[in-house]
Amino acid sequence: NFDEALEMYEMNHAVEEKIHGEDHPNAAGVCENMAAMYCTQGKHEAGMALFKKALAIRVKQDGEDHPDVASAYNNMAVAYGEQGRHEEALVMFSKSLAIKLKVYGENHPEVAAVYDNTANLYVTLGRHEDALEMFTKCLAISMV
Description:
This protein has seven helices and no strands. The chain has 144 residues and is mostly helical. It starts with a helix and ends with a helix.
């Protein structure tokens, strides 16, 4: 049940903050999990607040160009897309992609995943040529 799961995450978060401090990557991970749960339940405002908190922790701990920061941007993009906040989602996907390209290079599954996510959003927006471009890049990586 959602309420029990959320209560467990909140307890876990409190323990992580007590043991490691509020800016520890473990606390960011718990925030991301709670954020996803909130968004799944349609509680987007609470979910986005936690996604933003997790992102701030990750940037502070790892720097802007870290794969975990890229994943945080990607998670936020998906959540924005689910809320119909498509332009914000595209900005977050773009940030995620820039980091992943810098860290992994063009031919990496993590890069392909962002191309795929972005392509699906473009389909939702009716931007089929942009979607085709992203799907083509994704497919090219999966064939490497």
